Automatic annotation (TrEMBL):
InterPro entries for the chain: Lysozyme-like_dom_sf, Lytic_transglycosylase_MltB, MltB-like, SLT_2
Taxonomic source organism: Marinoscillum luteum
Transglycosylase SLT domain ranges (all copies): 38-324
Full protein name: Lytic murein transglycosylase B
Length: 335
C-alpha cells in the first residue's frame, strides 16, 4: 500500500477519526503502551506536518505493540558475549562465501561506489554481511510496530524512539515506501544496511541519484553504507586494525576505540607495533576477551569510523575480519 493510498484511507470525517483515535488508545497493546503519549504524538505530529489527525490515527491504529521487542531491548545478546563467541557468529565459511558471491553479483556498483567515496569495497560488503547476511536477514518485525512499541512502551528510551517514529512516518512519504510492509530489526533498523530512520534521512543515497532511496535494494544500500562511512571521515587506503603480537612488560592502559595515542606512546608502554608504521601514527588500544585470555589490537582511524556505524568494538572487529576474509577469497577467485 503506497502513501497515496494511506492518504485516501485517512479521508474520513473528523468524528470518525476521533473514534479511531480512541480505539487506538484503548486497544493497541492492551494497556502496555503509554496511551497518553500516543494521543499527544498524534496531535503533535499532525500539527507540525502535512497530515490530518485522522490520517495519523489510521496509521497508529494499524501499529501493534510487541512484547518480545521489549524483552530483547532489556537483554541484548551482544552485551553478554566475549569476542570469541561473537567472532564465531560472523566468521563462518557460509558468510564468507556468500560475501564473495554478493561482491561478484554487485561488482559494478560496489567498485563504482568505492572509487567515488574512497571506502574499501570489502568493508562495504563486510558491513552488509554482518548486518543482514547480504540482505537475506533484514529482520522479522514490521518497522512501524517496532518503533511504536519502543516509543510508547519502553520509557527508558521513549524520547529517542518517538523521534525515530516521526522520522519514519516522514521518510516513507518522502521515498514513496510502504510503511506497512517494511520489516527490520526489533529496534526499527531497516534494509540491507539496517539504518534507523534518522540515519536513513541523513546518510541514505540513491545509487542512480534519480529515484527514491530504497535501502531494501542492494544498490542503494551499497551507496548508503559507503556514504555513511565517508561522512564519518573514512580515510582512503589507510589501515583499519593490526594485531599486537609482541608485548614487553606492558603497562596496564585503558582500552577504547578512539585513536588518542601515538604508536610511540604504546611502544614506550610495552605494546610493540609491527611493520613500518610511523611512530607518530595515532591508534587506540583494543582489548578483546577470548575464552582463554585477552587479545590485543591497535585500532586506527578507520576502525573508529566503523564504530560510528555500531559503537561496539566487537562489531567493528567482526566487520574488519569478515571483510579481510572476503577480500582474500574474492581475489583468489579472480586469479
Amino acid at each position: 500500500m503506497r502513501w497515496k493510498k494511506v492518504m485516501k484511507m485517512g479521508v474520513f470525517k473528523k468524528t470518525m477519526g476521533l473514534v479511531l483515535l480512541g480505539l487506538s488508545m484503548g486497544l493497541s497493546g492492551f494497556g502496555q503502551v503509554d496511551q497518553v503519549k500516543v494521543a499527544e504524538f498524534a496531535r503533535s505530529f499532525s500539527d507540525r506536518n502535512e497530515m490530518s489527525l485522522e490520517e495519523v490515527t489510521v496509521i497508529l491504529n494499524n501499529a501493534r505493540y510487541q512484547e518480545s521487542i521489549i524483552r530483547k531491548m532489556e537483554k541484548p545478546a551482544e552485551g553478554t558475549m566475549t569476542w570469541g563467541r561473537y567472532r564465531k557468529i560472523f566468521m563462518t565459511e557460509d558468510r564468507i562465501s556468500a560475501g564473495v558471491e554478493f561482491w561478484k553479483e554487485n561488482k559494478a556498483v560496489i567498485n563504482d561506489v568505492s572509487s567515488k567515496t574512497g571506502v574499501a569495497p570489502e568493508i562495504i560488503v563486510g558491513i552488509i554481511g554482518v548486518e543482514t547476511f547480504y540482505g537475506q536477514r533484514q529482520g522479522n518485525y514490521r518497522v512501524l510496530d517496532a518503533l511504536y512499541t519502543l516509543a510508547f512502551g519502553f520509557p527508558k528510551r521513549s524520547s529517542f524512539f518517538t523521534a525515530e517514529l516521526e522520522k519514519f512516518l516522514l521518510l516513507v512519504k518522502e521515498e514513496n515506501l510502504n510503511m506497512y510492509e517494511i520489516k527490520g530489526s526489533y529496534a526499527g533498523a531497516m534494509g540491507f544496511a539496517q539504518f534507523m530512520p534518522s540515519s536513513y534521512q541523513a546518510y541514505a543515497k540513491s545509487y542512480d541519484e534519480g529515484g527514491s532511496r530504497n535501502l531494501m535494494q542492494a544498490d542503494d544500500a551499497i551507496a548508503s553504507v559507503a556514504n555513511y562511512l565517508k561522512e564519518h571521515r573514512w580515510k582512503e587506503g589507510e589501515l583499519v586494525a593490526l594485531p599486537i603480537k609482541n608485548m614487553v612488560n606492558p603497562t596496564k592502559l585503558t582500552p577504547g576505540v578512539k585513536p588518542n595515542n601515538s604508536l610511540r606512546f604504546y611502544s614506550d608502554n610495552g605494546y610493540m607495533p609491527s611493520g613500518n608504521l610511523s611512530p607518530a601514527t595515532m591508534a587506540a588500544l583494543i582489548e578483546l576477551e577470548q575464552e582463554d585470555g585477552m587479545e590485543y589490537w591497535f585500532g586506527f582511524n578507520n576502525f573508529y569510523v566503523i564504530t560510528r556505524y555500531n559503537h561496539s568494538e566487537l562489531y567493528a572487529m567482526a566487520v574488519f575480519q569478515l571483510a579481510e576474509a572476503i577480500r582474500a577469497d574474492y581475489e583468489a577467485v579472480k586469479q
